[in-house]
Amino acid sequence: MAGGVAILGAGGFVGARFVELAVLDGRSDEVIPIVRAAKSVARTAHLGLTYRFGDASRPDSLARALEGCEAVVDLTKGNPADMPRIAESVHAAALAARVRVLVHLSSATVYGQLERPDLADDALPRLDHWMRYAREKGRAENFLRERMGDGRLTTVVLRPGLIWGPGSPYVLGSGSDLVRGAAYLVGDGGGICNLMYVDNLVRSIAAVVGHPAPASGFYNVADDETTTWREFYGGLAAGLGVDPATIHLVPGGRYRAGLRDLRRDVQELAAYAWLKGRLSVEARAEVKRRLARALGRDLPDPPDRRGRPVVTREMHDLQTTRHRLPTAKFRATFGHQNTTSFVAGMASSLAWLRFIGVDAREEAVPAPVARPTDVPPTPAGATI
User: Fold this and answer.
1) Residues 305 and 333 occupy one common structural domain
2) Higher local confidence (pLDDT), 287 or 172
3) What is the pTM of this model?
4) The pairing of beta strand 195-197 with beta strand 162-164
5) How far is the CA of 170 from the CAs of 85, 116, 211, in angstroms?
């Protein structure tokens, strides 16, 4: 690509892998990593690329970083409350820099639990979703949707399922839970695990920006295989020396909210974020200490003690998803990009987990890993 592809969020899980694969494929001159701070370069600093600095929340700053780029891929994440504003800023900067195409990474969580198998790729997001992350992703989508018809900028929104592979928060969280005996399956584990292997996602994004004339629109992306949560956990358990019988089975049915959910709702309030930003670290620690002492009898045991599973609403919803994410539209438009199978992806994920020391076998020796640039990411709960 003559003008190059700007990667926003190049220091994150997907962004770092995009940059890394470009270098490994001999296309380092085609990618332009853009980060907000120097610390974000840590994962890929050894690759020898030239980084640009730009703030995705400031159109003027970002437009300067995008100068000369033909395409921009928005892989930014962060506080859910900021997502619509970031989408607006990136869109404005892309227009100012006269890029040809904008690829925005959304999430299949905007649909909720995929309650129908024939869900259209351009179906409206659920703005009544209980999870703020999903609601704000949906609002960001709607902003871009309203501007797709004006002809000023080709905008492609990709909705991946659960992004996995070496470095994935879900792989790390699930593997760690299995090793310490806190993993669980909802019901019989037969829910659909809508996976999207990170390399397959990177190739899908590359197919969009490499297309001579992509059309603005929404596209679901996911791996080819239909995988259940029982199969996903079973594959991890087998490779980590964990007896599958130690995986807890929790009742299916409707999720019952508890104190943890109330705490999450409070933490998502704008007032909470405002107050947190104005309290010192010491003051926040004291508030937590007093709350723990006042509510100690009601708080659940920490998940890393006694191997007791802690069922979260996010994982309950993911594990009770009934249908596979439909992806025929993407394949018909951009071709088949899923060259990494579930078996191959699981092997790479297990090699990475063992490399960083997540293994139930005491005698296990760290296995070589094909991706030494990966470092342990944020604990499970992050999506991108």
Assistant:
1) no
2) 172
3) 0.85
4) parallel
5) 27, 25, 31
